[in-house]
Structures are given as C-alpha cells and as structure tokens.
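Hi everyone,

Forwarding the result from last night's run.
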Amino acid sequence: MKKRLLVFLVITILLVASFGGVANAADPLLNLKLYLIDSNSNALPGYIVTIDNNTQSVANSNGVASFPAVNATGVDTFKVFTPDKKQVGICNLSYQKADKTSVGPAQGNGEYQLNYSTEDATIYVYLIVDPNGGSNTLCHPGDASDNPLTPGKLPTPKPSASASTQPSGSSSANPTAAPTAATNPHVEGYVIDEQSLPVEHATVVSKNTDSGGSVSGATDSDGYYTLPGISEGHHVIEVYGDDSQMLGDVDVFVETGAMTGLKDVDGDGVIDIHTGVGTLYLNLQLEDEGGLKLLDVSEHDVGSPAKHADPTAEPTAEPEPDPTEEPEPTEAPTVEPTAEPTTEPEPTPPAESSGIDSNIMIIIIVAIVAVAAIIIVVLVLRNRRY
C-alpha cells in the first residue's frame, strides 16, 4: 500500500510540474509599437527605449520603437533615453485583457494599465516624453489602438536615401548612441525583400542567446532601421512584419576581428567587428521559406542595397500615384502630461543582461523532476520483485 502511494505521489508531482511549465509557456504576448512624441506631438526619432534594462529598441525616423513578443504579465518598467544616452523619462506599465484596447488612468504609484482586446496581436501606443526630463521624470502613454496611429510631427522633411547621403534618421543619432557598453557598436542598415524592394513597418530584432538580452528597431518607408548596439556572442537576427509574424531569421556569431566584415567558419556566419568601430552597417534581405541573408557588412555607409538588385531579375511594377489625389494630413493628438514625476534610485544605462531564459529554466526543472520520478519508480518496482 505504501509503495502504491509513493508511486501515486511521484506521478502527481510530475504532472503538476509539467502542467506548470505549459502554463508559463502560454503567457499572453503582445507586439508593441510605441510612438514617441513630446507634449506638442513632435516625433522623437533616434530615442531609445528599454524594458526592464534587458530589452532595447531605438525609434525609427518617424519616432516609432518596436518590441515584438512582450510578455503581457506583471509590470514592465520602460525607460527612455535621448540619442546621446541621457535618460529623460520612466514609465511603469501593467497589462490587462479587456473588451477594448485602451490606456487606463495612472495609479497612485505612477503605474499605467494597458488594456488589450486580443492576445498575440500588435498594439499601437503613444508614449509622451519630456525631452528635457531626467531619470525620475514620468513619461506616460496616450492613446492605444489595435490599428496604426499617426506618427508625431517631424520638424523637417525626411531626406531620400542614396549611397552618397546619410540614411534617413541617422543625422539625429549619435553613432554610439545606446544605453549599452561603449564597446558595442551602433547598428544601422536596410531591409529588402526577395525582389530587392524596401520592407517597411517591419521590426528587426537581434537576440544574444549567450547573455539573454535583445535589441530591436523598426523600419521606415525606405526599409531603414537602427539598433542601439550589438555585443559579442551568438545572435539570432529576426525580422517581423507589422502583423507580428516572423518574415525571416538567421543565426550569426559576432566577434572582434582584424577587420570588419562577414566570413564563413565551418558553415556558420561570423561578423567580425574591428576594435573601435562606432557604427556597423548591416543590410538584410529576406529569402524564400523564412530565410534571412546578411548583406553589406561594413564599417562604412554603403546605402540601400536596392541599387544592387540582380539586373537579370524580372522588374516588379509599382502602381503610379494619382497626382490629383492629395492625402488629408493628420496630426498626432497633443496631450499635456498630468502625472507628477515619481522617484527612483538613479539608474545606470542598461546593458544586455546575462542569465538563463525563464522557459529554458522551466524545461530544465521539468526534465529533472521527470528523471527523478523515473528513478524512484524503477527502485520501487525493483524492491517489489524482491
């Protein structure tokens, strides 16, 4: 009887651990698009946003920072930095499933609640920032929607991209602008599809699988993106569409080398970065069946790779715009900050953190419990024979 009870307890523990791991793995995820604006609805391109000092994204030329697959549980701390790494705001955000996507009022501790109507969806949120603020200045969300919002106003027209000019949005960004270690170069480049056409409104993510940190950036109408920085180690570079679906990914190793460039080592792609390089120019091209190709890995600006398209490729016709139609201009809403700044110990610019991913920990724990259970069952059955 005691032996049967022991077997029953072991099986129960195994089932509970297994279901616990499945439950944690099924946490709701959101693809966040943050439209960074000031109180006058001016866009803030080149500004950097971090989530809990571990995940970073730099705003594109329209002031849009993108975070794919954000775990919509608990409370996240968003910090905003200028392109030269000065922290100008902080915001605490919690998540709640609701009938309509919206932003709830601030709580007593300065925490805002993001209500979302659909899991695993893209949520668009205005994040209002004081460019002259400090590390304890409260930035706060404005409107939230399931549909794209109107970006903030730009002070000057965005220049067209060419090989002889600086890429869109890069004029306002310091080449080393990122709340990361100074040895991690800033990254910028373009994303094109199989026909060498720009991929706009996409999100480029670089995950360091060694440290567990990640950085991301959104593409503009030219397919141009920037990343706060890239560190040494094994990376998975991913490109997501505006619907949060992955369009392509590639594994690559990043290390210090005698010169900056891309090489092949035993079939693996390796990006060598020369010591002291401030900006790594990395162009990406989507391939069939979810592939992603690294193009133009250089410490020099080579411009958009669209001009390098295969001359034998079949040209793709694009619809001609109707000169008689003129889009009606719209402006992002002007919202004045109302909440008082919260206080918090002076933070230091975050870096890609180290540690083991929580899902990996869950798998390891479940495996250990399973092995222990099997050993106990085998011992019990062996004792019953004798």
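DSSP finds two helices and 20 strands in the chain.

Cheers,
N.
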